[in-house]
Amino acid sequence: MTAAPALVAGEYAFTPRDFDRIAAMLRADAGIALTEGKAALVYSRLAKRLRSLGLPDFSSYCTLLERDPGGAERREMLASLTTNVTRFLREPHHFEQIVRDVLPPLAEAARRGQRVRLWSAGCSTGEEPYTLALSVLEAMPDAANHDLRILATDIDPVVLETARKATYSEDALAPVAPHLRTRFFEPAGPGQLRARPALRDLVAFRELNLNASSWPLRQRYAAILCRNVAIYFDEPTQARLWSRFAEVATPGAWLFIGHSERVVGPAAARWRSSGLTSYRLAGGTP
Question: What is the three-class DSSP state of 219?
Answer without folding.
Answer: coil
